[in-house]
């Protein structure tokens, strides 16, 4: 609450105290908009006049000091916050916070050990050449992502939410509340945010090799990802998901794990990004039901797509689809294969190739023959286990990490995976890089 409003509230409470004095012998409490004042009518708080009348001057002073201490404490935190930001160069000398509660909330985030900061809009505009189209790295679901360079040479990725986007605002708040508290080497770091009029901006660490889909689905660039690099990417994604599901302060379901949300640093190490659709999940719950579906076609678990049932196994399903894409170099969304037989989705194709022991046809030919057949079968079988129809039949991320790191663990024989016996359509046409919120799967026609 701004200081002037707090002052007005305090004046109103003071007037109420003066009205009540004399009518109460025991005292009481008065509740203001943001604070509560207590008063007592004991003799120690009063002075008597020559006529025997008692006045509450001392009482009013005590109450006022108590109330002002609340205001001063809040203002002190605000001043300390601004001073700290100025020293780091994040806020300029003319910036005035509009909402003390917001400042304190972000201050609390910083106190958790994260390096979350508030940035001035002019800094962001300068870093992106006033949001030049030449600086655009890509297009997110709710706005463009720019490359920015600060005066000290630091490179950042700047996500600008579309103005007046209601859903974008939900994503914006979600990212701040979640990502600022998550710390893992396989999660993209959120450095801070900027709020300026209608502009809502998030600032992330910059990942020089863009996203996994930039490489894996391009016939030329995918040759840069040999088998060992792909294994490193798979293991890193698994470690990041395990952290979200079991080791972070909050139990998080990502809900939109896909190739475009896996960013790669200069050494091609993977980092999971885009937590706008992520959801905190109770640690003592196995699943929950949601009435609003968010995610991307081709990666959604069947129980979530058709029944709204959400659990950590939803992310496991997406991980399995992603693993099949990494092995094959083919997209799940919009997959079509026409040869001697017609396959309508990637899972169906992978299952059939595995059953007929012609799985070498499924593997991305740019990998060459640098892999061991037994190892490849291990990863293909693990992927098929992750995309089982029933969530209970899928492994957890801790199981997956153990299987990836050991050759002594036997992976169960997978059953027929989800969607491998149906043709799944969506309510709109989908291009190769499309992401839609509130997706509705309209038909599932048996073959």
From TrEMBL:
Membrane-spanning residues where?
58-82
| Entry annotation: catalytic residues | 256 (proton acceptor)
- Taxonomy, superkingdom: Eukaryota
Q: Which UniProt keywords are present, listed alphabetically?
A: ATP-binding, Disulfide bond, Glycoprotein, Kinase, Magnesium, Membrane, Metal-binding, Nucleotide-binding, Repeat, Serine/threonine-protein kinase, Signal, Transferase, Transmembrane, Transmembrane helix
Instruction: Kindly indicate whether the keyword Hydrolase belongs to this entry.
Output: no
Kindly state one GO CC term assigned in the UniProt record: membrane
Annotated EC: 2.7.11.1
For molecular function, the Gene Ontology terms on record are: ATP binding; metal ion binding; protein serine/threonine kinase activity
Membrane topology of this protein: Single-pass membrane protein
Q: Which GO terms describe its biological process?
A: response to stress
> EC top class, in one word?
transferase
Predominant place of localization: membrane
Domain named Protein kinase is located at: 131-411
One Pfam family matching this protein: PK_Tyr_Ser-Thr
Q: Which reaction does it catalyse?
A: L-seryl-[protein] + ATP = O-phospho-L-seryl-[protein] + ADP + H(+); L-threonyl-[protein] + ATP = O-phospho-L-threonyl-[protein] + ADP + H(+)
Q: Which PANTHER family match?
A: OS07G0487300 PROTEIN, RECEPTOR-LIKE SERINE/THREONINE-PROTEIN KINASE SD1-8
Protein name (database record)? non-specific serine/threonine protein kinase
Organism annotation: Triticum aestivum
